Each structure stands twice: as structure tokens, then as C-alpha cells.
Amino acid sequence: MTHKKLIHIPWTLERDAPPFEGNDIKSPEEMFRYTFKHNTKKGDKIFDPFTGMGTSLFVAEEMERIPFGMEYEPQKYEWVAGQLENWTHMVCDDAAKLDKYKLPKMDLIITCPPYMERHTKWNPLCGGNPKYAGYDKYLKRMGFIFGKVTNLMKKNTPLIIQLDNIQSGKNFTPLIHDITSVLNKSFIQTGETIIQWDTPKPDYPFTTLLTFRKR
Q1: What would the CATH number be for the domain defined by 34-192?
Q2: DSSP 3-state assignment of 47?
């Protein structure tokens, strides 16, 4: 059974963005505090396969959890690793190659993967490589990556993914449905949390956290 609930979290970005990036792809720190409080304890290992700007890892350290992460873009990797106490737990590589590294079993997997609109060709999981252009290949690779993630999960380790559907003019991308569909081979969905932002930024009133367990 999938459990759905609604919670309210303030929209406050506490860390400044790096000089080469804006805050458009950043999530509020309080979202991760809420998630870690309800799914982990001190000393637990937390892994983010799409580290991005590192908010999940920074909050994990703040709450005395042990962060691990992967980031494909060297600039972001260096910026995040340079601010972490556990910087050696960061890997700069494609998340599809995570089985090359000796990562431990994790107590929580949490991430917000790169989004793609279905009417576009540029695949953010492959750096825009034309060989992997298109939404179908994006979804296929997403399923492949999360299939690899199962190797880092204990029997009861939750996977929590932040996702949003995308409305761009007349184009609509049902990202939540589509990514959930490609995860069905490896995971069973166990929960859905709608986060309604207090004092949100324009045109972004809420987000969704999907919770899964591996099959």
C-alpha cells in the first residue's frame, strides 16, 4: 500500500549558491532535516547518487549522519567536496558507474535527479551526448542507474526521490509517473509525501517525495 501525506515546510535557502550556479536547482535544507529526522538516526550512512549542490550531504553532516555522494560535473563535485568534513566519501563520476567504487551499504538513499522534459532531446544524464538523446533513453538510463543503487541498500533501506512534473508552456512532462514506472522493475513504492512550501517562490508551490523499497 502507498501512503500519501501532506506536510508544510518553509521555503528558505540557507546556503548561497556557488559562483557558477544559481539556486534554481536547490532544495531547502529544512526538507532534508525533516526527511533525515523521520528516516535515520545519528551515525547512519546516507547516499545521494545525484549530489548536485550538496544540500543533502551538508545537512547529513550537520545532523551527525555520514554522507556519501556522486556528482558527474567536476565543478560541482569540487565545490561540494571542498566544504565537507567527509570529503573522501564523494565520487566524481557518472552514477551509472557506481559499482566501480567500494561504497558501503547505506541506511538511506535520497536524491533529486536531473530533470528532463519529454519534448526535448538533450539528455542531462549523459551530458547531452547525441548518442543518448531523447526522453526514452533518459528514462531507460534512469532505471538502469537506480537498479545499480539497489546494491547499496540493506533489506529495509528506503529510497526517497524528490520529483516534480514539468509544465513548460503547452508542453507537460509527467515525470513523477514516468520515473516511477521505470523503477517498478527494481522497487516497490511505499509512500508519497506532498510538501507544500510556506512562502514559496513563484510558480513552485509544492514538491513531491516518493518513497520506495527494493524488491
Answers
A1: 3.40.50.150
A2: strand
